[in-house]
User: Fold PilZ domain-containing protein from Geomonas limicola.
Amino acid sequence: MDRRQSTRIPFKAPAFVVQNGSAFASEIRDISRHGLFVDMPAPSGAGGSASVSIILKHAGRSLSVTVPCSVARVSGSGIGCSCNELDPETLLFFSNLLHSSGMHPAEFLQAFYSYLDEQQAESN
Assistant:
């Protein structure tokens, strides 16, 4: 039985996971409204906490987004994390923005602030 509350979205990105005092280079396999799956070698057991830094890269530029998570499940290839602070729309927005054609950092920030204003207006 699948207990997942949200649809998974395929999303590949390098990541850095800190779990139980150990750090691992890894890769995000997918994201959802409430979590993500991280491919990683020798995952520890479920039930603990982890910090996942998602690294968005394009054309020599990078952006890192770090979210605290709890490890909800473990498989042979990685960990399924529950992340209450993960917002996939913002993550996808960052990824798309980073892939846009050569924005100056000030333009990047302006686009991000406009996005946040839109999100806030929608929630009111």
Remarks:
- The radius of gyration is 15 Å.
- Strands lie at 9-19, 22-32, 35-39, 49-58, 61-75, 78-82.
